[in-house]
Every structure is written in C-alpha cells, then in structure tokens.
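quick one, three chains, predict together pls
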Amino acid sequence: MCLAVAGKLIDRSDNDGVVDVRGNRVRARLDVVPEVEVGDHVLLHAGFAITVISAEEAAATDQAFEELERAEEDERNADRRPGDA
Amino acid sequence: MPKKTSETPTDARVTRNRLCARIADHVAALDADRFPADRPVSLMEVCGTHTVSIHRAGLRGLLPARIRLVSGPGCPVCVTPQSYVDALIALSQQPGVRVATYGDMIRVPGRETTLERVQGDGARVSVVYGVMDALKLARERTDEQIVFAGVGFETTAPTTAVAVKLARGEGIGNFTVLGAHKLIIPAMTALLEGGEVQIDGFLCPGHVSVVIGADAYRPLAARFRRPCVVAGFEPLEMLDAIERVLRQLAAGKAEVQNAYAKVVSAAGNRAAWATIEEVFEPADTPWRGLGVIPRSGLALREALADLDAARRFGVEITDQEDAHGCRCGDVIRGLIEPPECPLFGGACTPANPVGPCMVSREGNCQAHYKYARSDG
Amino acid sequence: MTDSDHILLAHGGGGELSDTLVRTEILSRFPSRELARMADSAVLDFPGTRLAFTTDGYVVRPLFFHGGDIGRLCVAGTVNDLLMSGARPLALSLGVIVRDGFPMADFRRVLDSVAATAREAGVEIVTGDTKTVGRAAADGLFLTTSGVGVVPEGRRLDYAAARDADAVLVSGTVGDHGIAIMAEREQLGFETPVASDAAPLVELVEALLAASPGARCLKDPTRGGLAVALNEIARASGRTLVVDESAVPVRDAVAGACDLLGLDPLTVANEGKLVAVVPADEAEAALRAMRGARYGDEAAVIGRVQDGRPRVVGTSALGGQRIIEMPYGEELPRIC
C-alpha cells in the first residue's frame, strides 16, 4: 500500500534534505525524522523520510538469510559421496 | 545501502526452497482439531504492496495447497468510498478550485466519471508526487483554492499532517485537505469481528508499521489469538514472514513478530505519530466495502477546521453502494477472489476498470489479472 | 467507461488508449493495407525498389534535456523508424511550428542539433516548412519530420514473422529517456545522472542485419517502453513472448528512479534503443554485432518467442510469472 524507497541522506538544510537513491538526488522532507544525520540511510515515502534505516538491523537480516543458505550447503556437503563433482 | 544477500538467482532459489520446506513441515504439524484437514489455512496479507509482491514472485504457486493467501483492505485507493471520488470531481469543476492528488486516484471511477476525464474537459486537476507539491501550488497560484486529496494509511498521514502545520504556520489561506486517511488496525479488527472471512494469521503491512510500530498489533493478536508478523516486501522477506506465521500456528502461538526489523521498530516512529496527533483525531469513517468503521479514519481537528476542505466547501463523504454491479467491497473484505466477480476480465479490466480494485496497481483484481492469469 | 467526448492526454501515451484511438478513429477512415500494418514505417512497392516512408511529430517538454533536445529527437526518431523497416534512410523533411516570441537563440540551438544529428545519421534534410503561431496557440516549438529510405532487395522485416524458438534481444538499457525527461520536470523533485539515450541507430542496425540476415523484425520501444514494443510484436505475430525480467538491462539510477515514482522500467520511454527478434541460431552473432556497434554495448538477449496466445509473459528471478500488459497511457507518480 505504500511505496517506499531507501536512500542515503547526503545534504540537508533544516527540514529540507537531499537523499541519494541509487545515484538519483531526491528532495525529501525530514520533519518526522528529527534524529537523522547526514550520512544516515532513510526510507522515503511521498517526498518524506519516514524512518532512519538501522544499519545493524539491515545486516542482521542479511545474516539470517546467510545462515539459511549455510545450513542448506552443509546438508548438501553431508550428502556428497566421494567421486561427486 | 547494505548489500542484499541472495543476490544471484541460484542463492535466492536455495533460500526459497529452504523456507518452503519449513513451511510444509509446519503445515504437517498443525493441530488437526484446530485445523481440520479439509479446511484451508488462511493468511491475510493486509497490504496492497504485499499482494503485488506475492503475485509477482509467484509465491502462491510455491506454497502448499492448504495455505490460502487472502488479500486484505490495505489498498488506500480501493477502500476510498466512491462518494469521495465524486467529491473531488465536483470540486475540480468549481471555478477557482484545483484538486491536487496522487496519481493513484485519477482513474478511479466515481459514479459517472473519473478525475482523468474531467481533467480532459478542463477541470483543474494536478497530479502530485507528494503533499509538499500541493502546498507549493498553493503558494504559487494565489488565485486558486488548492484542495489536496489526503489519501493513504498511517504511512502517508504524517506527511499530510506536516503540510497542514506548515500551511497554518505560514498563513496559507488557499490550501485545504479533503481528508481520507485511514487506520489499518481498526479495519483488521472489524474484519475479525465480522467473522465473514476466515483469517488464521496476518502478514502485517511493512511501511504502515514503520509509523505505528510492531507493538501496535499486540492487542489484536492477544484478543483474537492470531499470529501477526510484520513483513518486508522482497519475495524472500515475504516467504520468511509466511514461514513465521505457520511456525506460530503449528506451535499454537499468537504473537507479534517483526520480520522487517531493518525499518520497523517495536514502538514505531514517535515523531511521525506525534505530528499526526497534533493535526488529526480518530473519526468514524466509511470504508468501501466495509461500511463505517468506528475511529478508523483521521479527521482534521476542530482547531484546524479552516484547513479542512470538507468544511470549507460543504462536502460530505458517505458510504453508498457501488454502482454498475461492482463487487470491490466483497473483494476488499476477502469474501470473494477477483475471478468470482462476474465483471472480472470482461466488463472490468485494467484498461476499462469498473471499480478501484482493478484501477489500483495494488488492487487485488488488477494484481490477479496481471499475474494469476499467466498460468493457462 | 471507455467512450470519451474529448481527447485525453493518455491518448498520446503510446499504450492501450492510443492504440484504441488510432484503430477506431484513424484506421477506420483510411483504408490502406500498409497503414493497417501499423508498422514503424510504411513500405511502398515501386518497380525495382521498395520505399520506406514514415512521419512523426515531436512535442517533448522540456525542449532541452540531459542527453539531447527536441532537435536530436526529431531526426533520431524518424531515422530509427525507417531503420526498423530495414530501410537505408535517405532524406527527411522538417516541419516547424513555432510560437510568436520564441527565443531566437533557442531556435538556433534546436536547428543546430537537427543538423548535427542528421550528419551523424547520414541523412539530408531536403524539404521543410516553417509556421509561426500566436503565443496562446502553441507551447513553444513543435517539430514534425517525415522520412524516406530504401529497403534493400530481399530484406523483409515484419513483426508477424516472429516464430517459435526465436530469440528476443534489446540493444541496451531501457528507461533512460523517460527518466531523464521526468527528472527535468521540477515538480517530481529529483535530479538524475541518467541522460536521454536519443540516438540514430544507423550503424547498429546495419551491423545487426549483416550478422543476422534472417532477422524477423526490429522495433524501437519509444513511448510506453519495452512493454508496448513487445506487445505489438506478440499481437502481430500471434505468439507469446517470454521475457526474463532479470536479463533486461536497466541502469541502477533508472531502477532507483522507477522505484521512487512507482513506475515499471519496462513501460518507460526510450529514444535510442531497439528490440530485435532473430532466429535462435543467429542470436549470438546478433548480440556480438550490436555490442560492437555504437550505442549497442549493453545489448542483451532478454527472451524468446513461443507458440501460445499473443501476449508477453515476464519471469522473475524467483520463478514467478506475470503478464506484461500494454500500459494504459501515461504513467503517473503514485504512492502505492
């Protein structure tokens, strides 16, 4: 229901910010993310940053998926017989 | 932006298979008394963006047949009453009035016509990307009354609230909002209370949750004993969320889980919520297909009445029956699947939509038309 | 809700509504078999030769944008339409409609651009017309170019010729032009490094057709993007086109801008790209030829033709499928 895009805040002047979204420089309002600092990643919706994206949580998500893949890999290795490629 | 794992198609499929295997295990482990084998396990994905993401990734085809994904009322365009569209159309045709709206709304059929068509006839309609553009129009076009169509859920409401505050602060006298913002949890509650649709668990909207916080679902989860998992929008994130709901169901749990923690916190965005509360108050609001739900919408506070287009222009939004045989109401409630609507695919297609569920890219009908029909 | 008493902006969007307008209002009045083909150029048979003939109007706003301007567009667009029929472009006409009060400096700049692009494409502007209109009547400057070219003996490109197992290729990244133009429209609030791809594809097409003499058809995906081009080929050939969406080249910044605006890159305009359908055994040669030619370095194989209902099916990395529909008309910014 809500298109939101992630980007990096690269400039600001009070509540007017510039966010880099994959190379595009997007104007966004910062009124509802008072804690944001230049350099933070934010989530944009309809011209506003609606939250700061936590770098740790983003990494944690990646990690969870990585674990799933490692578990699968381990299973494949356990099944491998000599002579297999 | 941190790099997403599972970048290659192969990696993604490995994870996908892993999650699907777990889902199958959970389904097999479901308590037979609570979930008799002849009855599907229904998960409601509330949010329109989730509907599209699920279809796009072909997730339905990956899940065991017993799991039924029901699309919920989380499409702001779809749940906007027809009378709201008619009100915007009427306003746009008034001399000196310009309607500023998100692109989503301009093709939604009112009783007779659409904003797009009246724009062709000379009515003043401007499509904007955000509410700040509407405010800018008001500052620039001092000879016009700018009416901003404030549509959207809790994700979008803070942005309208900020604009209202700025307009009041700057003394902008030609800017008003025709409010239609809605709150998602009252709608979820109404569906559960209504009991018409079987819902065993929820995939909660990711971006609404950014504002309201994952904890917001706790009372609902506890009262109705339904697992609620806040889900992201990537296909694997959605699959992960589905797996968590099933895991809870198999274990007899009914908790709130946040599977989108990279942007959603337990408490949500307090600053955004505080801004909403400064400007709006909860109001009984008509939802297309769901009727009037108590305290489910946002109305401008009395102190800000002069920024309320409804009051300035004497507009009343009513909940009336859909015209033309449209069954969007039933689709929104999850009562019928789009193909069960007699108009689906014939009289009602994305090119010639009758109701909002077919107009909106996040409408269940359009999603179904585009994605589900590719099989066969 | 289909009948309209008035022309809508969306009627010019290149999608479903445009198509309907042309079929119901225009084709119905002009019973030419060549017109009914609705190809990029008409191909007219004369004794000993086949002439390709095409026309296009250019109404782009703003007139000057990153990567080009209306002058470059009006030559590239018409030259490309000739090339899509397999013709060697010969000559263009240039019709100018310009508003009273239009700055002379801008007028010269546009014409210089026309000249430079014509030189690049190896075509001459051989005839033209200039009209001025009152300030209220026009929005600055409109250009119309018509073009003629000769189709070599034995070369017959036709969308209807696509057949089962054929490969579908695209000559480079999609969505660049549309995003570049949209960014210039200040109210969308973003600046982009993306430049319009407007370019005449003379060298690219010659290299491609030399390497793939069995090529079935070419099409330039202009308004309405790749989605329109693929759907038109599917309809004309009566076959299914299956596209691997992860294989379609899209610049990162274009993907980001599309995410921001809620657009599908496959429906965003291009002005310097082509879609080619070639026999499967010529696909590799076709790809290599394009990649070696100017404007083709990011060419890719994106799908295949298969027997089935006329439609375009997109497949995603996770194995999901969707129907890539003809877009309705104008793509507008959305929130959901």
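The longest strand of chain B covers residues 291-300.
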